[in-house]
Amino acid sequence: MSSPPALDFPSSQMDDVPMADGTEESFPNAPPPGNPLFLAATPSVNGTPSQRRFNPAESSPLRGATARRALGMSTPKPKTPLFIGGSSSPMAFPSSTPSRTPQRRAQIPSDRPQDSDPLDFPSTPVATPKNRRGDIHSSLVITPTASLRRTARSRTTNLNSDASNLDIPGSSGPNLSAPAAQSDEPDEIRAIWGTTVNLAETMKLFKDFFKGFKPKYRVSHDRSLGLQTRAFTSPEEGEVILYEGYLRRMRQTGETNLNLDVNNLLAFPPSKKLHSQLVKYPQEVIPAMDQVLKDMMLEIADMDQLAGMEGMQGDEAEEEIADIMGRIYKVRPFGLPSVNMRNLNPTDTDKLVCIKGLVIRATPVIPDMKVAFFRCLACSHTVQVEIDRGKIEEPHQCPRDVCASVGTMNLVHNRCEFADRQVIRLQETPDAVPDGQTPHTVSLSVYDELVDVSKPGDRIVVTGIYRSVPVRSNPRQRTLKSLFKTYLDVVHVKLGAGNALGFDKSTRPAGGDRVPGVGGLGDGGDEDEEREGRQSRKAELEQKLKEVSQRPDVYSYLARSLAPSIWEMEDVKKGILLQLFGGTNKSVAKGGGGGGPRYRGDINVLLVGDPGVSKSQILQYVHKIAPRGVYASGKGSSAVGLTAYVTRDPESKQLVLESGALVLSDGGVCCIDEFDKMSDATRSVLHEVMEQQTVSIAKAGIITTLNARTSILAAANPVGSKYDVNLPITRNIDLPPTLISRFDLLYLVLDQVDDALDRRLAQHLVGLYLEDAPTAEAQDIMPMQELSAYIDYARSKIHPVISEEAGNELVNAYVEMRNMGDDPRASEKRITATTRQLESLIRLSEAHARMRFSDFVEIEDVKEASRLMREAIRTSAMDPRTGKIDMGLLNTGTGSGQRKLREDMRKEILALLEGKSRGVKWAEALKLLGEQSSVKVDPVEFGEVIKGLENEGILKVTGEREKKTIRKIEA
Amino acid sequence: MSSNISDALQNPSKVLSDLYQQHSSLPLHTFPATVTAHFTHIFQSQHALEQIPALDLHHPPESFPPRSLVAFNCMVQDTSLSQDLYLGVKPDGSCGGWGIEDNPALPVADDKFDHANLREASVLWAVSIPGLSDWCHDAKAGAPAQPPVLHQPHKYPLLDVAHVGVQLKIYDENIARPLRTTDLLSFVGILTSEAISSNVIELSHPITVPTLHVLFATPIMRTIIPRSFPEPSILSDIDSLRTDLVDWVAEEGLAGDRLTAEWVLLSAISRTRSRQPPIMPLSLTVTKFPSCPNDPNAVPALYHVLSQIFPLVVTLPLALDTLNQGAFYPVSKDEDLHSGFLQQPKGSLVLITEGAVTEGKVLEQGAKNFLSIQEMMKSQTIDYVYPFSNFSFETDLNFLVTTEGKKSTFFKTDVNIPLRPTRSSGLVEELYKPIQSIRLPPQEKISRFRQLVGGSKIGNSVLAESLSQHVEDDFVRERATVKEETKQFSADDLIIRMVVARLVAHSLHRAEVTIDIWERAKELEKQRETRS
Lengths: 971, 532
Description:
The complex is a heterodimer. Chain A is of the alpha/beta class. Among the domains of chain A are: 341-535, CATH 2.40.50.140; 554-797, P-loop containing nucleotide triphosphate hydrolases (Rossmann fold), CATH 3.40.50.300; 898-968, Winged helix-like DNA-binding domain superfamily/Winged helix DNA-binding domain (Arc Repressor Mutant, subunit A, Orthogonal Bundle). Chain A contains 32 helices and 29 strands. In chain A, the strands form nine sheets. Chain A has a six-stranded mixed beta sheet with strand order 15-14-18-21-13-22. A five-stranded mixed beta barrel of chain A has the order 3-7-8-10-9. A three-stranded antiparallel beta sheet of chain A has the order 27-29-28. In chain A, α7 runs parallel beside α14, α9 (199-212) crosses α14 (282-307) and α19 (570-581) crosses α27. The longest helix of chain A has 26 residues, at 282-307. The N and C termini of chain A lie far apart (119 Å). By secondary structure, chain B is α/β, with parallel strands linked by helices. Chain B has three domains: 2-219, no CATH class; 232-457, 3-Layer(aba) Sandwich (Rossmann fold), CATH 3.40.50.300; 460-532. Chain B has a five-stranded mixed beta barrel. A five-stranded parallel beta sheet of chain B has the order 10-13-17-9-18. In chain B, β15 (381-386) and β16 form a beta hairpin. In chain B, α7 (238-253) packs across α8. Chain B starts with a helix and ends with a helix. At the A-B interface, β3, β7, β8, β9 and β10 of A face β2, β3, β8, β14 and α11 of B. Chain B: This is Mini-chromosome maintenance complex-binding protein. Chain B: Pfam families: MCM_bind. Chain B: One of its GO terms (biological process) is DNA-templated DNA replication. Chain B: InterPro entries: MCM_complex-bd. Chain B: Its main location: nucleus.
């Protein structure tokens, strides 16, 4: 029989141990009561398992046994260093009992637990820690066991301890093959009431788990479930005894909570059934685990002491062990698959469940009375009563036989013991709510270390015990009706992380507010997240996204999934798609000491076009799928914190709405509709945003610069609402050329009349809108959420690097683009591309690589990027006069053809003014010029030329309006 | 059978208990479905249903003795309340739930109950149907005797309007599960008064509210009164009936403007046909609609006219104050879902008047409010605001905006039409005349009007074979011809024209969109365009 000693406390022995033994034992060794006046009379709760009183099953032998076991909390006392350092010979005391379990695990079968007579229990120290977990309400209290052996062992013979040391690890070996070996042990007397669960066995299994679990079990378990596993860096990594390490760390850090991933229980073959026991009877099993944990803590401390580990020598070790004795250890299980909170039902009552949600409200800390302190008004006898199932029974009469006065027991508040408690309201997250339903909420009760761990707004995963308890009906109500309420007693909280909607880590003080506990959580960071059962969904999604990225037509597939209801405009969609992926942000680390200049990775797109070509629809769509998208337009904005004004338009005398401030989001896409109607002041901010990626704000005497890494998607209508194809684009859009040049891609979306195209469009629309049961065309498109997830994933995970070939290709593409303006016949050189275009090219190539989930920018990425650029340039930078592409149009507002024209006009004007010292009237000059010229003289051009001449100091313009006169300044 | 009915009417609790005893051998979880089936069966005939006393403003909850059987026609307002736990079997073996009181002699001891007998009941909040026109329910005369006691008035979409609000407890999961907010149903159950089931953590003094323990429920269609399309009884003279209807609306509500009246009707009978591609109800702005100088909040006569023929009509007089105060969309405050004006049942017609809008600042709340209306016009969804997250719900409301200017100050609607009254004197008085001054057509005529619009609202039509070619040709031609004008005929214009054509077909109870209907729609558009 490989039964380790821990299990080895047959009940008969315990029963045999007289109650007095335990107390007597502690007697001489106990410290003199520090405050005898009060303490002497005060029975320790530890010796008073009052909760048994209410248990209807007390009469049953099963119950009785557990009850007796429950009393033993006072027993750790003897193991305090006081005792150890004391004179009592340790030798004597193992020998006094044949069993290895000394009688110090005293059981006090008291049936009137609360009426401790001060005479009998004068010195039981109140300070002995007692595990009173608010989350458990357990009916079980279990005595530490191993620690006793430890004392004995360490003090007596090495042989003894060696034996037990050998014993214990040895047991885990065979267990692997024969997990249920102990199940037939006829020890039902300590079974959990109403079940066949043998508690002693449970404790032993758990101990075996602690001593035997190695990461390799988990890996093979995960593999068998088809989950992704992490490769060990070395074979030894899989072989470490995981929990021993955790326990050591707990001792070193003074942490008292151990987070236990229940999947590890499943993964370790001998402890498999612990998992289901834990889920079904958490109330009984968790305290048992707590106990085992404490035992193990002591055992390991002992082991380390023997091994002479650093920090565990001599007095230090004794101190450490004493500390451990004085602490309460808690096991916090987690890792169950979470269920939807609306699927919790009464059958889950008192079971361990796991739910996810959003904290919407948390009460302040509520002091929760754990032990009530009563004093008899007549004889000053004091009694402590423990909380039981959330209630404290007030003694109605003085328990002292001599006094026994009725109704004299008085609560003394400042002698009661309190624990922290907090009630949290947890709401379903939008993704968990069935379509069209409103979210549900549940109450959570959190205790002690878990109080204030989560804040409103956090997404958390909680593991807890589901409770349904009757509540007192309103006494004012006439009718009597039983009411119940449900809530969760939380044993473990995990703060949501990873996804975009998790809490912002930067808002929390560094390390200030961690979920308490060692083990699993907080140790491995992301890895834990992955491991934690939840991975299935996340991994599934990832898998799916990767599959999509492998499609040969992924580019066109994603492009057509973008705003599928919009007809054609493929290149525009592709450009916007790449904008959503974005290039990589770069900063020159070398030379600048890390603080070198930053190059933006954000791609800005401008759509210019006729009204009614679905520009707004595209913007709206992008706003919906883009991370942190903001939509603004001349009509208003979706941004929060926005105000607007209703004013009377001075011209039309109509009430119109004027939008207020533009709100930008750092790291998002800002969609600006009716860009041309935006006020100059607002637009001027964008200059800075689009190139420097910052916003400067001056308020209350403070000037500050904020990051605004925002890509801009803007849509503008041409001047006069219809695009005039005979004018250059700068004349069609009422935007400063400096701003236009900051857009990487500029698309002209023109509403061109074309019979064939129109007919196809009409067909498409008729099919869509006039058929009776309109069905979205059964085309292969990606749903919006998925597209959003895809982009999100790519943006956060993929950071492509430009490969060498791609670099060369970029150079070629740039040179080619610059040469586009080369016309051997032209006397002057047009500017077709500038370095700005090169930067755009790089960003677009990166975005394209990102879109394919590729870690490198390759030639094909550059090719597509340059194709897109060329397309965009072709439509936007074409000089209508010459039909040639000229980036100068966008960069300076004038194309080379126009510049030539102006030069001619300038000459003519000067010739006109020659000899006319009194000057020429503006209108007349214009007229004269028109008569001379073969082409129509554009008044705007004329004005520009005059302005130029004026600036040069050659001309002077005087007068206003009709009286405006141009005069040459005589040198 | 009739004794069954009278038993159920007189003592529903006893019927329930007896039913439980008969079925006590069956598993407990099947009992709620048994109850639903049993009571549905008893009241299966229309006649029997009508015998159940109605819970409404005229018969407020206080007027019924406890545990009466009542029927409540209502709109579900809130489905996010915590579920109620009850003991399915009392300690004495009798039926639990449905608000049946405990036997005081056998109180449920704190832990002496079997968790296996605990059952869940869904708790909802329901309110009288907002905007329900008088003619839809038994017009039994006049205003209620005394002002009703308002329970939880913040859970009703309309401010300061008398209504009945009731807490529903639904035991049969099959009834509760499909329920959504703004659904219209008639719940039949046992009326009691109970503490409010609150999401609030600890309520020291629970409020008592009327509570209906639901036995069974029947859905109410969005036309409130069943309609058919096409309606055979009006088909014979549908053209003249439609003309009469347009004339009457124009005469009484729009100072004789027949074209506007026709557009108003077409807009009002539209509905969401598809969300992908989006085919939403046609929103309409009547521009150049004078405001009432004496009382900017005056309700236009158009509202009274429309509520005579449409079952669900509400009006929203927009002003900066109303816009900036309070949310138009439902908001969850302290885990209690407060209603907002826009929480209306599907099929409602919303008349927004901008007459009271003045110059001034629109605050954040105001901006959110008009944006939520705009969003509803465009995509027929509304966001309920919960802490840290918004939940989007589908709606289906028709929007009609009246404004003084050339276009609405706040909203972009599908169609704008300027009002051209046929008379100029006393125009404002005419447009804002009180309900008493509206001349109603004979009862028989008006009920035919209602049949016409009700049927149109649920209409379905198919495309005539030849039409699609015709539409395509039209489109190509039109784009080629109107080149010189500033605005080109665009795809969006075509979409609206197609929607209008379908509505014209529906308004004529025609199940097919033919070329002549297409031409008629075009004509309507042309007339409208020449005005602006």
